[in-house]
Amino acid sequence: MSGIRDRVYAVLPVYNNGQTVADVAARTRAVLPHVLIVDDGSTDRDLQALFRNTDITVLRHSRNLGKGAAILTALEYLKKLPGIDYMITLDADGQHEPEDIPLFFPLMERNDYSLIVGCRDLSGEHVPDSSKFGREFANFWMRVETGVRIDDCQSGFRAYPVKYVSRLHCLCRRYNYEAEILARAAWANLELHNLPVRSYYPEPSKRVSHFRPFLDNFRLFCIHFHLVGIRLLPIPKKKLRPSPGFRYSIFHPKELLNALLHENASPLGLAASAGVGSFLAVLPLPGFHILTILYVTERLHLNKVMALAIQNLYMPPVSPVLCIELGYRLRYGSWLTELTFQSGVRELHLRLFEWFLGSLILAPFWMIVSGVATWAVASLCSRRMRNEN
């Protein structure tokens, strides 16, 4: 494996991890000959002085710019070096085990365009529940945005193909960069791989984290909202490699049906499919409901079977009548109690407006109800299946 070791740099983004970075860097250097530290404006220790008498390179930001900015600084540095194919990032707080770096090598030797995510073992005693939930939530959005299944989208233990990732433009510069780069890499047709790795979580009193729950979660929400919006638009995405093509076709109906049934079929995935199907079915789109649902679920990689099945609950006349009645009530303060030729035909444009007005309330309502109910049932079935197995 000496060949691949010479083509890889280990990168440690560091911000005020002075108590752990020396140990992590030394263990990393024992595995790889090239180690780069990006000091993202640390104030607790002079890292350039700490590593002065070593062969470890230290780059420094004059102020804290964010983890994403540190990774981008490393990419800018590495893409100028000859013969460097991959950059392996790992956190400087000791959460990742540098001794697991060789696990990446077999996948990296296959090509120079794979992005490999080290999927952490979160079964330890001190792993916070918020980390487990956050991982599942991030994985769900990755599946919606790209259709690619990644088991730990929040892991910072990754192998990036330098030549390709350095050509992708990202908006984010903090923790949300790691979510954005995965989606853009998938859109660019890079190969994404899951790789099980170990993780270490100390007791809460000994844990150092710079993740700010409200601000950083808000940033994550914003980038996922942005990525979903881009995905919904029928515009081409930047490709760095040829498309692998369609895996299933109408000429293999059994495989196609099986793929449709299992598409994003996790409890969260089914809940999102049911919610989106319900929302779109209530909107005033007469004659275009099915086409709209198919388009949106295809773009967001949701379960088309679930979305199309649940939209049948909102078929005319019940859903449109409820929306019109509610819209009429919002406009005039009373219910529409008389359906005549005048109110039903000559004032059809008014009824359509009231349908739209009422749907602004009923569509989100039924989206939440359908989503929560589907999630509850799917979670119960999933637990029973796991217990039976």
Verbal overview:
It is elongated, with a radius of gyration of 25 Å. Helix 11 runs antiparallel to helix 12 (289-299) and helix 11 runs antiparallel to helix 16 (348-388). A seven-stranded mixed sheet has the order 3-2-1-4-6-5-7, with helices on both faces. The protein folds into two domains: 2-232, Spore Coat Polysaccharide Biosynthesis Protein SpsA, Chain A (Alpha-Beta Complex), CATH 3.90.550; 253-388, no CATH class. With 389 residues, the chain is an alpha/beta fold. The mean pLDDT is 90. Helix 2 links the parallel strand 1 (8-14) and strand 2 (35-40). It has helices at residues 2-6, 21-29, 47-50, 67-78, 105-110, 129-146, 162-165, 177-187, 213-232, 253-262, 267-282, 289-299, 304-310, 318-332, 341-346, 348-388, and strands spanning 8-14, 35-40, 57-61, 86-89, 114-120, 158-161, 191-197.
Secondary structure blueprint with pairings:
Elements: H1 2-6, E1 8-14, H2 21-29, E2 35-40, H3 47-50, E3 57-61, H4 67-78, E4 86-89, H5 105-110, E5 114-120, H6 129-146, E6 158-161, H7 162-165, H8 177-187, E7 191-197, H9 213-232, H10 253-262, H11 267-282, H12 289-299, H13 304-310, H14 318-332, H15 341-346, H16 348-388
Parallel strand pairs: 1-2, 1-4, 2-3, 5-7
Antiparallel strand pairs: 4-6, 5-6
Helix pairs in contact: 6-8, 6-9, 11-12, 11-13, 11-16, 14-16
